[in-house]
Design goal:
351 residues; alpha/beta; eight-stranded mixed sheet; 17 helices; 11 strands; 46% helix
Amino acid sequence: MEAEALENVAAHTQEAMETIFSFVPALVLKSALLLQIPDIIASEGPCASLSLHQIAARLPTQTPNLDYLFRILRYLSARGVFIQSQAGDDTSEVRFSLSECAKLMYVRENSHASLVPLVVMQTHEVMMAPWHRLHECVLQGGHAFEKAHGMDIFAYGKDHPEVNSIINDCMASFTMTSMKQIVSCYRGFEELGTVVDVCGGHGAALGVIVKAYPHIRGINFDLPHVVQTVPSIPGIENVGGNMFESLPYGDGIFLKDDESCVKILDNCYKALGEKGKLILLEVVVTNLKKPTESLEILSDLTMMAQGNGGRERSEKEWNKLLSKSSFYIIKITGHSRLHLKFVEVAKLKIM
């Protein structure tokens, strides 16, 4: 019985240790991305395999620490980012290549799917700090980002251009990856003439829509300090303003933001024609058997840590919220493997 108890403790210790050190993979991955190691390997060809010395020779220093480099690459190989050709600690013959996931997600030049900007943003000190304040939110209420930085994320971005640039790059990259897959299975833009993207950032989402439907006139609407840095995209007009005050008129309004929803939804209602529709790009939480393993729940916690009161909702919760602004859900569309969905919304007919 004692041996059984010890085995039980050992199993739970392993499980607990994996949870306690679950922050490590993202931060070690960040170090490899800042060193541009996936790019170094990818530059030699799709099937390239480089030795430790070959990788080190391409780093921006004359004296790289090979021991540290090897240990980082060994760990990330165990995590499936790289493929290590030889096990053990002898570094003289060991070589590293990219896994299929790394080729697609961690090479900067892969503009169709690269998640490098997402890693850089989510592991940035500014974005990590609010996670240390979640317990204060439980005890005191309020918002974690404000507790960490004294202002919400929008105000912080306005005062810190370098962080604003990191956030915009992340949103553009992540949106591009999701949008191309979702637009391929959604036909709701076909009958629209003008589409307004609320909080459109760099216009990445609208760019995908306009490219798929060239007849659409796109209006990329965001805060003035955001649109000032947005590059020109054919078919898209960048407009600065405040979504809490008013929105440009459109046949369709595309919304990815979840802050102070009712006020924004009221403004969407005013900006839409009678037959216009609101299209939300949102996570729709389902009844999950293993919620701790779901990106839906992770996304909700991220909004709690970095947002200003936003949250992810189930279809029932979305309908309840939308009804407050006289909207109702027509349909929900999305790729089965993606947690983001298009939620198509129409105006209720007021009698």
